[in-house]
Amino acid sequence: MNVDLGYIGAIAARISSRAPSVYEYKNPLAGKQVEVFKDGVAYQLTFSDEIRQVQGLMELSIEEFYAKDVNVKNADSDDIFSYRPQDQWLVFSQYLHEYKFFDSLSDEELKRIETILQHITDGMDSLTENKGINLFGITKKQLNSYEAHLELASSTAALQYFSNTYLNGDIKAGFDQLIRDYVKHNKKKVIGYQSLEERFYEARSKINPVNAPLTNEQARHLSMTNKLGKTTYKDDEIESVIKAYEEMFNQIANESDLSRVLLIAKEELLQFATKGILPADRDYRLARDFVTEKSADTFVRIEGYWGMLLNRNPTDRGEFLIPSSTVAR
């Protein structure tokens, strides 16, 4: 599969296919002459078809637009997701589109599928260093490292759940390979990754404190974040916690499982993020509360896309059910 830089989603492609192409517009007056008078002198004017030429310049605009993206220019030809680091869902969507997976779906079902895929990759999309062109205009909150570990595991398991539920045969085999490529692309980002905030805390923790007046709350926050900033992790520790998360998410089969797994994953994340602070430390509870608050959006997002995946009854809140035998090619 080759990435199509002009592809911006299956629903956009469907809408475009229904609308009359601006490139097919024909000026009904093209080639015709009219006579006009100016200062008592008659002039013959011929209408041209230049409007078609101008519109024709737009034909490759989206593809050319993306070709100028810094991420595309720096992309690795062996890594398809490096072409779409801010919108990795488009790679999965393009694959399904080319396999005609969406052809039998209604517009509502198609939008639902693409929304699920977009939410699944949203967390990993935020790790892009070079922001480049963001056609969808969505500002993504940068994850902290402990959130990124969780998101990689959860999104991988969610993509696999999607594949196991809706696909079979050749289309599933290709989609599963894309999942492996997705993991490879994002794992390189996650190992050793730190958010800007985490880098700041790490750097500040190495500086001798200044004698500045601080409130008790400020002093405790400084003490706690300095301890978090001094905490280090080996690569094998990071890989181990990602694997543990993935094993948890792979157990999800219903909403009850989801609630249970999220509780366990939250405790695992808190223990991992605060491993440098002993439970007896006066800053331990503050650190757990701090990490809980920082990771709240990630847990909400994860619960959201897993909830969409699990809720497949078309009579329940307007969701849909797509039998694998119907859509698989």
Taken as a percent bin, the fraction of beta residues is: under 5%
In the predicted model, the low-confidence regions spanning at least 5 consecutive residues are 51-58, 313-329
Helical fraction: 55-70%
Instruction: Summarize the main sheet.
Output: 2 strands, antiparallel
The radius of gyration over CA amounts to: 26 Å
Form type:
globular
Strands of the biggest beta sheet: in what spatial order? 1-2
The secondary structure category is mainly alpha
Number of helices: 15
**H and E string:** HEEHHHHHHHHHHHHHH
Mean pLDDT: 85
Architecture overview:
With 329 residues, the protein is mainly alpha-helical. The protein has a domain at 80-197 and 218-327. It has 15 helices and two strands. The chain has a two-stranded antiparallel ribbon with strand order 1-2. Helix 5 packs antiparallel against helix 8 and helix 12 (255-273) packs antiparallel against helix 14. It is globular. The relative contact order is 0.11.
In short:
This protein has helices at 10-18, 50-56, 61-67, 70-73, 89-98, 107-125, 145-166, 169-190, 196-205, 216-230, 235-249, 255-273, 284-294, 296-310, 324-327; strands at 33-38, 41-46. Helices cover 57% and strands 4% of the residues.
